[in-house]
Amino acid sequence: MAQSGEDRRDRDAHEEVPSAPDDKPKPWRTEGLPKKPAPSRRSWWITLAIWLGSYLLLFGLLTAEDQLSEPQVIAYTEFKRQVAARNVAEVFSRGDSIEGALKNPAPLPDDEDEGLYQQFRTERPTFATDDLLAELTEGGALVRARPLVQQRGVIANLLISFAPLLLLIGLYAWVFRRQQRAMGSMLGGGRQRPVDPSTVRVTFDDVAGIDEVEAEISEIVDFLKDPGKYRKLGARAPKGVLLAGPPGTGKTLLARATAGEAGVPFFSASASEFIEMIVGVGASRVRELFAEARKVAPSIIFIDEIDTIGRARGGVRAFGGHDEREQTLNQILTEMDGFSGHEGVVVLAATNRPDVLDPALLRPGRFDRQIIVHPPDQKGRFDILKVHTRKVPLAPDVDLELIAASTPGMTGADLANLVNEAALLAARRGHAEVHHRDLTEALEKVQLGAARHVVLSEEERRRTAYHEAGHALLGMLQPGADPVRKVSIIPRGRALGVTLSTPETDRYGYDAEYLRGRIIGALGGMAAEEEVFGVVTTGAESDLETVTRLARSMVGRWGMSERVGRLSVLPVEGDPRMMGVSESLLNAVDEEVRRITDECYAEARRLLRENRHRLDAIVERLLEKESLDEPEIYAAAGIERRHAAKPDPEQPDRAESSGGASTERRSAAADQDSRGEHE
C-alpha cells in the first residue's frame, strides 16, 4: 500500500521534484522525502584537483621565471678576461660572490655551442691578491653591493605583497566558520543525514496490538492516499491528531506507520528540540519545519512529547512564564491555523499528559482528534510478540500465547525488551534457537530483577522464607486474589526475595473487597515475621509503601470510606489544600487510612495463625528449592488452585507504570516484596 500511495503522490501532487533543501542543520528527522540527486562526492576531488593544479601552475611560473633570469656561471679567469677587455658593465658583490652583466654578449670559452652570455655569476678565490676594484673602475664598470636577500621575480613579489591580506581573509573565514558551527551547536542544531526510506519506513504490518487505534487513524491514511474522494464532498482532513497514552505503547511507531502506509514524507521532531536559550529560535524552527512539509505535501509532521511546549498558559498547572516556550507554542498555533485543509499536511503529536495541554491547542481546527493509545490486551500482546519474533529463531516448545497471558500490563516496548533479553540469554547459553525457558527466565528478570549472588546467613534465609511465604499464603487464601505464580528467596535487584502474582485475564475494574485483599496480602510478610519471630524488620519497606498508596487511594480518590464519603479528596498531584480541601477532611482521610491498614494487618495475622501449618510447609519447601513455581506453591500449601477469578481492579499502585496492555499498566507483581538489605 505504501507503494501505491507513493505512485499516486508522484502522479497527482508532484509534477516536478521540489528543490533540495539547503544544508543548514535542522533539528528534525525526515523519512520518505522525494528522491533527489545525491550530492556528488567528486566535488571534493574536483576542489582538490583545482588547488593542486593552481599550485603546480604557480610553481611552474616561478621556476620558469627563476630559470629565465638565472645568470650564467663562469670561471673567475673568464671574468678576469672580460674585465681586462673592459667588457664588464656592472657587478654586484656579496662576499666573495660576484654577479654582473657584460656590455656586449660574449661566448663561453669552453663550449661555443652554449651560445652567448651576458649575465654571469662567479666566485672570487680567497687567495686572490689582485686589485679587482681598481681594474673594474678603470674599465668603466659600475660596482655596487646589495643585501644578502635573494632577488625575487615579479610574480613572487606580487604574491608576497598580497600574502598578508590573503592570510587575514583566510583567518577571518576560518574564525567565522568556527563561530557558525559553535552557534549551531549551542542552538541544538545537527547536520541532517540522508535517510534511506527502504530501511526505516514502517507500515501497519509492523504495528500490532492497537487495532482500534489503527481503525481511527486509517481515515487519515485514506485521505492522504486519495484526497480527491473527500474534496468532492467538501470534506477536509483533520489538521491535527493527538496520540495520548502511557509510555511505550507505540505512539511514535504508529505515527511513522501512518506516514509509511500513506507513502508520504514524514517529519519527526521532539518538542524539546524547539526550546532554546535564545528567544525566537523555537518559533523560527517551527516556521521552517512547516515550510519544508508544505514543499513536499502531502506529508506528516510528528511532534513528540508536545506537552513540553504545549502546557496550559496560566492556571494552576502553569509554573511561571517562559517566553521562548510560549512563543514556540504560539507559532505552532499560528501555523496550524494557516492550513486550508487541502494542503495535505497533517500534524500528529504524542504526549503522556494530555491533561496539562493548553486548551487552544486542543480546540477543533487544530488538534481535531484525540486518540488514546492504550496498552494492549492479551490478544494484542500475542500479536506484538509475533511481530517482535519475526527475525528471532524460535524453538518448537515456545508458546507465545502463554507468554502473552503471563505479561498483563506490558506495553509493546516491554515486550520488545523481553524478546531481546531472551535472545541475549539464548546466545550466552550457545543455543541456536530461543527456547521457552529462555523467555520465562527473561520474563523473571524483567519483572523481578536480575539475580544477585549474595550469601545470606541461615537465620536471614529462614526469615526471608517466612516473609515471602506469608505473602504467598495470604494471596492464595484471599477470595478473588490473583494466582500466585512464583515465590523465590533468591536475591534479585534490591530485594532479598520476591513473590509474583498475576491475573489470569486482563481486568479493568476494582472493588473494595479486592483492594482490602491486596492490602492484606502485602502485609503478609510483616505479619509472618511478627507471628513467627516476634520482630518487625526493614524488609517490609516496599510493602508499606504499597499499602499506604492503596489505602489512601481507596479513601481519598475512590470513595470507599463511609466516613469520608463519595469525595475525591486527594488529587493525582499537587497539594489538596490548593483544591479547597479542609484540614478536618484531610485528618479524616488519615484516620480512615490508619483504620483500614490496622484492620487488614489484624486479619493477616489471624489468617496466618489459623494456617500456620501451611505457612511452615511452604517455608520448608522454599528453603529446600529456593524458588517455587505455581504448581509447587499450591501443592506445598495443600490448597486447590482456583481458576475462576473476579474482574481485576485497575491496579494503579501495583507497581511502576510502564504501559503495555489495553488498560493502564500496573506491574503484575501484586505481592512482590522488594525487601531491601538490612542496614
Description:
- The chain is built from 23 helices and 14 strands.
- It is of the alpha/beta class and 679 residues long.
- The chain folds into 4 domains: 210 residues, Rossmann fold, CATH 3.40.50; 83 residues, 2-Layer Sandwich (Signal recognition particle alu RNA binding heterodimer, srp9/1), CATH 3.30.720; 68 residues, Orthogonal Bundle (Helicase, Ruva Protein, domain 3), CATH 1.10.8; 180 residues, Methane Monooxygenase Hydroxylase, Chain G, domain 1 (Up-down Bundle).
- The strands form 3 sheets. Strands 1-8-9-10-7-11 form a 6-stranded mixed sheet, with helices on both faces.
- Helix 10 links the parallel strand 8 and strand 9.
- It is elongated, with a radius of gyration of 42 Å.
Indicate the percent of residues in helices. 40-55%
Spatial strand sequence of the major β-sheet: 1-8-9-10-7-11
What is the CATH architecture descriptor of the largest domain?
A: 3-Layer(aba) Sandwich
CATH topology category name of the largest domain: Rossmann fold
Per CATH, the class of the largest domain reads Alpha Beta
What is the tally of helical segments? 23
Oligomerization state: single chain
Morphology call: elongated
Task: Tell me the number of structural domains.
Answer: 4
The number of strands is 14
Strand content: 5-15%
SSE class:
alpha/beta
